[in-house]
Amino acid sequence: EAGVAQSPRYKIIEKRQSVAFWCNPISGHATLYWYQQILGQGPKLLIQFQNNGVVDDSQLPKDRFSAERLKGVDSTLKIQPAKLEDSAVYLCASSSDLGYGYTFGSGTRLTVV
Amino acid sequence: AQTVTQSQPEMSVQEAETVTLSCTYDTSESDYYLFWYKQPPSRQMILVIRQEAYKQQNATENRFSVNFQKAAKSFSLKISDSQLGDAAMYFCAQGGGSQGNLIFGKGTKLSVKP
Lengths: 113, 114
Prior knowledge:
- The complex is a heterodimer.
- Chain A is mainly beta.
- Chain A has no helices and eleven strands.
- In chain A, strands 2, 4, 5, 6, 9, 10 and 11 form a seven-stranded mixed sheet that branches. A four-stranded antiparallel sheet of chain A has the order 1-3-8-7, with no helix packed on it.
- Chain B is mainly β.
- Chain B contains no helices and twelve strands.
- In chain B, strands 2, 5, 6, 10, 11 and 12 form a six-stranded mixed sheet that branches. Chain B has a four-stranded antiparallel sheet with strand order 3-9-8-7, with no helix packed on it. In chain B, strands 1-4 form a two-stranded antiparallel ribbon.
- Chain B is globular.
- Chains A and B meet through β4, β5 and β9 of A and β5, β10 and β11 of B.
């Protein structure tokens, strides 16, 4: 089966600019996650979707981050405006069964200068 | 709150020898899963091994095995016959429960010496 696709692979932007990341999960996976991984740390959940509804966005900085999952398939994560501390790897993952099987994409490395 | 703690920021092992990575966790969930993920420089999280909390038997996958101590909330990873390709960041994670998202530790960087 095809894996979780993410793009772009790398992105460099200036602070206060906006950026968007795209994720295409494994076909049929109802649950989609966005994680932020700051250098030297483990991934931290930003938002979790079940189909196209939000399950958990408690750690999403909603003043600058937004995410959507249209039609319960692809998802887009946006940052506007970006701050220096947003420099991180953004990982997308999907699963078919809650808590059992997770598949990760290769991530997007964002550098904010 | 659920937490996962990895107390070893870095570990080193000689090729062909055995190394154990430590992990402890805290959760109020009764039904959950525990995972070890490998993250090479390519950044992709690769599943190494998975343990269902309701199973007493420790999971094994070829050279990888775990020591799961549920009462102590401990979940260590043993890598036998270490290979150069095992060098990477290793993350312990807890998943499942009421929402199903993964909670990660801070990771252990494993180096393998030839």
